[in-house]
UDP-N-acetylglucosamine 1-carboxyvinyltransferase
Amino acid sequence: MDRGSTSQISEPIESNPSDNLQMTQIEQNTPVLRIIGKVPLSGHVPISGAKNSILALMAGSLLSSEGCRIRNVPYLADVKSMSDILETLGVKISRSGEVLDIDTSNLTKNSAPYELVSKMRASFFALGSLLARLGSAKMPLPGGCAIGARPVDLHVRGLQALGASVQIEHGIVHAHANSRNGKLQGAKIYLDCPSVGATETLMMAATLAEGETMIENAAQEPEVVDLADLCIAMGAKIRGAGTNTIFIEGVEKLHFADFTAIPDRIEAATFMVAAAMTRSTLSMSPIVPAHLTAAISKLQDMGVTVRQDAPDRITVIGGDHYRAIDIETLPYPGFPTDMQAQFMALLTICEGSGVVNETVYENRLQHVAELNRMGANIRLKNNVAVVTGVPQLSGAPVMATDLRASAALVIAGLAADGETTVMGLHHLDRGYDRIEEKLRNVGAKLYRTTEVVSV
Ligand SMILES: CC(=O)N[C@H]1[C@@H](OP(=O)(O)OP(=O)(O)OC[C@H]2O[C@@H](n3ccc(=O)[nH]c3=O)[C@H](O)[C@@H]2O)O[C@H](CO)[C@@H](O)[C@@H]1O
Ligand SMILES: C=C(OP(=O)(O)O)C(=O)O
C-alpha cells in the first residue's frame, strides 16, 4: 500500500464506511498526523493542567461577581470553546500564557448558544452556576465525545430537588428557581450513579442556595475535588468532596480567588502508555501519583516498571515483554474510562489475551476497528473486547473517532512498524495540549500536514 504524498488521490479505494470517512478527510485536505513508528523515545514530558478540571473551574467562576484567576490552563480547543461560551454571557476573559483571568462582573446573559454548547460536555455544567447566580438559566443539551447516550437526567432531577423548575423544550433546558427571592433551596440529593458532571453542576448550584445540601453517591474524581477547592477558595462552605457524600452549606455570595488547577492525570497516563508501548523511558511531571493509582497498578501488572522519582514526578521504563491483563472501567477510584483506549492500544502488543470491559459508556470502543486496521487482534462483543497480543502493529491510515481514541491511535502509531496517518485531529486537539511538540521533544517523529495522502 502506497502512503506517499501526491498531488491527487492516485487510486480508487474499496468502499467500506471507514474508508469513505478517510476519503472525505483526504479530499477536504484537512490536517492529518503522520507518524513514523518504532522510533525510541527518551526524556521528560511536562504535564499540563487537567482539561476536565479547567472546564469545570471556568463554569465555577460564574458563581461570583468578582470572577477569578485560574493558573495552569492548557492550550486546548475545549478551553477556547468554553471561553467563547462565557464571553457570550458577558464575561471578559484574558489569557496570558497559562493564566486565565475571568471577569464575571458583567454577567448579563443567562443562556449560551447551541453552536458552542454542542461542541463539548462541560459547557452544560455552567447551568448550575448560572442558575445559582442569576436565578434562571437556559442551556442547550450538551455535546462532547460521541461515546454513548450521555443523558442529563441526574443534573435535571438534582436541580429540581434544589427547588428549580426545569423544562426541556426544543433541545434547550430551561431552569429557574421557584422561590420568590430567586434562590435555590438546600436539599438531600441521591445520584443514581456517581456522575461527575451532575455532581459538579449540583455542587455549584448548592453553594449559593439557602440551607444545607447533601449529595449522596457523589462522584469522587480529582476534578470534582478541584472544583470544590476553587469554590472553597471563593468562600463556599463544602465538606466531603473526594468522598461519596458531599455537604454544601449555602452562603450569600462568593468572592475572587486565585487558583491553580491540578495536573491532567489522563494526559499523564497517555504518556505513560506511550513510554511502555515504544519500549522507552520517559519521565513526567508535575503529576499527583495518587490520581494515577489505577493506571500505575495496571502498568505494573503488565510488567512495566514505574518509578516515583519525586512527590510529583514518575518515570516509566518500558521493557521487551508485557503480560496481558483484564481491565474494567469504573468511576474513580476505579480504572478511568478516559484511559481505556490508550491501555487497549498497549494490550495489543502484550503476550496473551486480556479482556476490556467498558462499563461507563455504551459506545466507547470505536477504536477497536482502527487498531485492528493496524494489525491488532481484537474481538468485540457488545461492550467487551478480547485483545490478543500480536508481536508487532503495522502503520496504517486510521480515523480518530473520539478524543481518547485519537490518543490511542497516536501512541499505537509511535510503536507500529512503518508510517501511520491519523485523521480526525479535531478530537485530539480538544484534550491534548501541544502533543506533537511534547512528543517531538522526546524524540518522536511525527508531523501534521494537509498534504494529500494517497492510500
Ligand atoms: C468534561 C468532563 O469532565 N468529562 C468527563 C466526565 O463526563 P460526564 O460528567 O459527562 O460523565 P458522567 O460521570 O456524568 O457519566 C457517567 C455515566 O453516567 C451517565 N449519566 C450521566 C449523567 C446523567 O445525568 N445521567 C446519566 O445517565 C452517562 O451517560 C455515563 O454513562 O466524566 C466522565 C466519566 O469519568 C469522563 O469520561 C469525561 O471525560
Ligand atoms: C470524554 C471526554 O471528554 P468530554 O466529556 O468533554 O466529551 C474525555 O475527556 O475523555
